[in-house]
Input
Amino acid sequence: MTRPRVALFVTCLVDLIRPRIGFASIAALEAAGCEVIVPEAQTCCGQPALNSGDRKTAEDLARRTIAALEPYDHVVIPSGSCAATIRVHYPEILEHDASWGPRAAALAARTYEIMAYLDEVRGWKPDGVALPATATYHDSCSGLRELGIKRQPRRLLAAVDGLALRPLDGAETCCGFGGTFCVKYPAISNAIVGEKAAAIDATGADLLLAGDLGCLMNMAGKLHRDGSPVRAFHAIELVAGMGDGPAIGEDA
Amino acid sequence: MNPTVSDSFGARVDAALADRNLKLAVERTAGTAEAKRTLAVDAFPDFDAARDRAAAIKDHVVANLGFYLERFEANATAAGAHVHWARTAQEACDIVIRLCKQADAKSVARSKSMLGEEIGLPHALAEAGITRIETDLAEHIIQLSGERPSHIIWPAMHKTREQVSALFRTSHRNPHEEETIAAMAESARRHLREGMLAADVGISGANFLVADTGAVCTVTNEGNAELSLVPPRMHIVTAGIEKIVPSTGHAVHMLRMLSRSATGAPLSQYTTFYTGPKRPGDRDGPEEMHIVLVDNGRTTMREEGLAEMLRCIRCGACMNHCVVFRQIGGHAYGGTYPGPMGAVLTPAFDGLKQSRDLPNACTLNGKCQEVCPVRIPLPTLLRGWREKSWREGLEPASLRSGLALWAWFARRPRLYRAATATALASMRLMGRSGWLSTLPLAGGWTRYRDMPRPPADSFMAQYKKKLGKGPRP
Output
């Protein structure tokens, strides 16, 4: 396979809250034989505007993001929800636009969530990565239902030596993050994430893994508030061999 | 404590979240329904193809509504029924009250109908001085406690068995002696049978209207529809115009989807097709049958981008699987229909201004769409309401200005990096450990959860340093 030029879309949460996920993504993509570029013109995909009903801003940010990302062979994103915004929603919201509609569709076809990209497109496995631990995995909703992300992260995690995955009761049930939902309706969100945190605790696993930082912040923040010892990582950190570093909320 | 519709959404939510009995009751029923549906769907050969067919049947009917409704009217009339048309809820109620008065009705027996709730029929009957007896067990409970249904399949799902027992003891003439399900059901049966047999008119909704036979189909698990509709002199049906299907075969396909999605059962206990009133030689049946076909905003929904919502067969799977519904129950939604389907329908029926919270109070996780037997794209429709709410300026000013400021920076990558660097620096000051437990402007988050303390430098800043030059354009 040729060496594709891959644009890494870093997502605003990864950029601001947990840069390790960005570096883990670069490491895994390079190990999988990609040339990785981080386009500087990227900011946020516009999902908060889209889901708040501000269609005009969402379209505007979609056009800017498309322009920033379209020179590359592939676009890879360490987030099912941002990947779904570009893959599924950009073509929908720009369908009426004769010039941007086709550009959105073309970019959508080259855009991937990182686990799906590594597993399905690159056929890659994390050779020589080891982490003796037990972990449980939460299937974040957008990736799961809009992109079919389910077996890809599990296949990659199964290749991490010494890592045992434990099933999570209600793994496909929303954690109550929902983008701006968690701050607009905090009490409902809290009730939902409270049940999720209890289910995570009940697995007895050391680590909580997922593919979306928003969901992880919500679950990890609740676990920490409740005094749970479970530590949270983005799955790509483990796959890239960075699972022995600080978990979310631990001092570096 | 029952929140009232006049409370704000926030107040209703607070009341619901504080009511642990509610949570227990909802979890018992919805949790069981979820598990049973999974088993039923797994055992169904190619459920996805069956869903595609169900969606296609409904889309075809909704696109050709006039044709099938006229056909239904002609065939129902030929079978001896009278068909009436109502554009609004008020018109529908007026027709039903006029018919009841024509029949000189003192009391009516009603078989559960969400359309009846939607048009306010219980209230209209009370205003007209007509005694109403709800014959569905759950509706009976609701009627005794003076509440509204909180679920479309289990109207009293918010009540525990213990609460129902207490209610029956004070309301039934010969209440149950033991507090067992069987004894309680027997108590209700004794009480309800008297009302059913004494009723002058039986009123029902319709699960399906069959165009090529003029039949009205009802589905129950208690047989109360049959007992309420056959003995009285007159049977009145109130049905939404989207309930139509082309033929009995189509109705049977929809029935298989409906019961599995609702309760996980292959079929409901009782399924009856009523075609016209009693004919000469029939031993029983009503002398008159009237069918009131109600629009109440449905043609407007079809024209205004909500045609897919008219596929809905009222199974309740969306609410049974909704994380928000499971926490707040049905009353918090404040409309006739709760859950994701209610969040789409209530703004259409009651106005977006009064109900803008409903489409917003959703995580857009897509589970409702995943389980919908007719593949209604509920998240897309909810997002559509959010867009309308934004366009019409109904969203709060704080959200609008916050989002506008963020978007202004997001359009300008260099300024965005400068602004986010400042934001990170100030967030770093809020805590010394890895976690922040208070955060200005994000109290909704930190009231319940801790927030990971952000790094000193963003990814972009760290990446630039590592590269020793700027990231490539």
